[in-house]
Amino acid sequence: MTYHHTTSGHDEAGAGLDAIIGERRRLIALAYRLLGSLAEAEDAVQETYTRWYAMSRPQQDAIESHGAWLTTVATRVCLDLLGSARVRRERYVGEWIPEPLPERTDWISGRPGTAANDPADPADRVTLDESVSMAFLVVLESMTPAQRVALVLHDVFGYPFGEIAGITGRTPAACRELASAARRRVRASLPPETAPTAHQARLVRDFKRAWDAQDIDALMSLLAPGATFTADGGGVVAAALHPIEGREGIARYLTDLTGRASGGLAVLERTVNGRAGLVIEHEGVTVAVYAFDIADDRIARIWAVRNPDKLRPWSR
Questions:
Q1: Which CA distances in Å does 225 have to 31, 180, 190, 205, 250?
Q2: What is the pTM of this model?
Q3: Cα(279)–Cα(185) distance, integer angstroms
């Protein structure tokens, strides 16, 4: 009797532990979207688990939904980090770009099923795929922390405003208004995509070929007249400190860049934040990751992350 009872207790404890650990990927997916940094997302989730394990077993058992508790704590940790991040980024050397991620499968996981349970404004939802695009993450950077949390929790992960209110300490109406304001900002900054994914990939491939060939005219034909190029070196490596505007300036900058590189650069097609992108290698080492935004059949924006601290996932 005692043996079986003890085994059952261990099984229950093990199952509970598996459930808690099983939330980690979802929490990192949430924290990355909120913070724009994988390193900071991992730190936020680690702090969340530290607080969980700091509680006694009776305190843990008293929590009705472990997933909801972990989400609440992780979101609040992210809110604290977003407040301090604004100060740090004011001192950042050059432009700050969210950390790019390879592939996409590990970062799409959300909170399945809840969107159908809260159909208040399904047409306004941001899909999980869109929510990891560099263009979307850059727009999130322009929002207040509260707007960012309300939009991501509701439009991306499908949390009802009543639950978001409990997480953020605001009223459901206030959370709804925060999400609305954030949504308006997204719509103003990101025109609806018209080019299919395969076509976007072909544009990026053509861009790569023109760059490899040092063909300024071909590069310019692929760029929108008002295209912008933004680089992030973080003061660690050389990078343009301010965005370059206009297709001719961008084309000339890129051709000059490869011409100055000793030993040559390898430009590789890769998936960057769920979209077609490019990885730049110098002597086998990843030195930059390029993300693109396509509008009206032209490349409208290029983000080039050169800060080596943000290229960790590309070196694994």
A1: 35, 31, 17, 19, 10
A2: 0.85
A3: 30
